Amino acid sequence: MSGDGGVAARRSRDAADADGFEDPLMELPGVGSTYAKRLRSAGYDSVDELAGTDPATLADETGATETRTAEWVDHATDERDGA
């Protein structure tokens, strides 16, 4: 039994909106439709654009906690760097 496969499949389903559009921002831990909209409003359209972003700035732009935005930035940086 593979625990990772089930989680990945569920996250992929969760990342799709009602129209079936898969939002890559929603693949970030803790990002649902609300934070995805806030990220887009702040000018971030992809996970890659978040890599290396200052978490404090991102928190100010999205209203999320700096702890949460640091997770997003770490995840985005890991994805960009292939970690």
From TrEMBL:
Instruction: Recall the GO molecular function terms of this protein's record.
Output: nucleotide binding
The protein's name is: Helix-hairpin-helix domain-containing protein
Locations of Basic and acidic residues compositional bias?
68-83
Q: Which InterPro entries match?
A: DNA_repair_Rad51/TF_NusA_a-hlx
Query: Per the record, which residues fall in region Disordered?
Result: 1-24, 48-83
